[in-house]
Write a structure and sequence with these properties.
This protein is an alpha/beta fold. The protein is 15% helix and 39% strand. It is built from one helix and seven strands, in the order H-E-E-E-E-E-E-E. The strands form two sheets. Strands 1-2-3-6-5 form a five-stranded mixed sheet, with no helix packed on it. Strands 4-7 form a two-stranded parallel ribbon. Strand 5 and strand 6 form a beta hairpin. The chain is globular, with a radius of gyration of 17 Å.
Length: 100
């Protein structure tokens, strides 16, 4: 009986939004450029390498200070290892002050 109650309670929490599950990776488009991110802790994230190496990031890009996924705001604090590998058309990157 207790296990059925716990299951119903957990489903109710998830459906109400009280219990949320964070994504550990997501894509976010800002100023026309889609970058990939991986979440860290405390609603921070970092720019990660492309999921699909066939997609080239090119031109001048700006990394946003805040990336949004599923209505949750993540502060961008890092640029991950090889985040722009294979981006031969990239000419400049503007980095926000939140990146340390």
């Amino acid at each position: 009986m207790h296990s059925v109650f716990r299951l119903v309670f957990a489903i109710a929490l998830i459906m109400s939004g009280t219990l949320s599950v964070k994504a550990d990776s997501f894509s976010y488009t800002y100023e026309g450029t889609t970058l990939n991110y991986k979440t860290s802790s405390d609603n921070t994230c970092y720019v990660s390498s492309p999921y699909n190496y066939n997609i080239d990031i090119f031109g001048d890009i700006t990394i946003p200070e805040i990336a949004v996924y599923d209505a949750v705001e993540y502060t961008v604090t890092e640029i991950g290892y090889e985040a722009f590998e294979y981006c031969s058309g990239l000419t400049s990157v503007t980095i926000p002050h939140s990146v340390t």
